[in-house]
Amino acid sequence: MYLRRWPSSTSSDYEPINTSLQLARADDDEGPPPTPPTRGFRNLLLCFICVFCTVINIYIALNARSATGEPFSATSLHSLSRKDVSRLRRPSTFIGFDSIHRPSPPIPKQINTFPSVLTQIDKTNPKVFDDNAARYLSTNGTVAAEKRRVLVTNAISTIMQFRVIDWGMERCSLQLIVPASADASVVPPGRSFALSLYRLSATYAIDGQSFSYSSRPSRIAKLADIRVVSGENTRFQRTSPCVRDELMTFELACSRDAYDNDCMLQWWEDKENPNPGVFITQHSTA
């Protein structure tokens, strides 16, 4: 607030001036400022883009075709089995790793990979074995135990499937260990027998909840005969190249030369202490 004095006037002739009011009027004379785009307009634009993308995706889905060239339909999608889903391409998560400069020879590293599927088949019974028989009920619900059973008898063999993981770890050693100090339940006292190890033709992920002797994959190669003697150390190792994300499936069965009452091997696989155990050790290649 200021006071204006008129010429030739007394002190009583001062007139108050409201400067803020005058400034406001001056601003009004210049016209209203430009109005920025409203938030509502931006939201409307985003909604339009979302709807447009949805329409494009629906069009692509309706015109997509299966591997056989037949168009997809709701019926065909519902008829997909786990085997079909497992055969879908798994995109690599290691983008650009091939272009990274690394020492040669590679720094020695190794990791142990345990079976993603460890189940049994019975040639005398088409039943499906429980692939998680060690699960238990807790106050929080059913807990899937980490332990899986290995069981081999004259009629029962164990199926093991591994998935090669990580990048640059493409030399795989399949290992089978049964220590001399193993419990009598692993190898009964006084037993001596041979196990046969086979490579199976399964290149898809096995569904342990429906797997049985009638649905087993075929044997493509016999890798070894492994001699097991009660009270003695048994250690088998076979090394071969492998490829990241490859599925490697094996069968452990009693040898045909040991089809008698002596062939009996079983234990619960413990990832923390795989002794006895069956696993793959991956070695660095890059």
Helical percentage: 10-25%
Mean pLDDT: 82
**Overall 3D shape:** elongated
From N to C, what is the helix and strand string? EEHHHHEEEEEEEEEEEEE
Largest sheet: 5 strands, antiparallel
Structural class label: alpha+beta
Query: Count of helical segments?
Result: 4
- Tell me the fraction of residues in β-strands, as a range: 25-35%
Alpha-carbon Rg, integer: 37 Å
The first-to-last residue Cα distance is 80 Å
Q: List the strand order in the largest sheet.
A: 4-8-13-10-11
State the total count of DSSP E strands: 15
Q: Return residue spans where pLDDT drops below 50 for at least 5 consecutive residues.
A: none
Secondary-structure map:
Blueprint: E1 2-4, E2 15-17, H1 19-29, H2 39-63, H3 74-78, H4 82-86, E3 110-113, E4 117-122, E5 136-138, E6 141-143, E7 148-152, E8 156-163, E9 171-178, E10 192-200, E11 219-229, E12 234-241, E13 247-254, E14 265-269, E15 277-283
Antiparallel strand pairs: 1-2, 3-15, 4-8, 5-6, 7-14, 8-13, 9-12, 9-15, 10-11, 10-13
Structure commentary:
- With 286 residues, the chain is an alpha+beta fold.
- It is 16% helix and 32% strand.
- A 5-stranded antiparallel β-sheet has the order 4-8-13-10-11, with no helix packed on it.
- The chain is elongated.
- The model has no long low-confidence stretch (mean pLDDT 82).
Summarize the structure.
This protein is α+β, with helices and mostly antiparallel strands. Helices cover 16% and strands 32% of the residues. The strands form five sheets. A five-stranded antiparallel beta sheet has the order 4-8-13-10-11, with no helix packed on it.
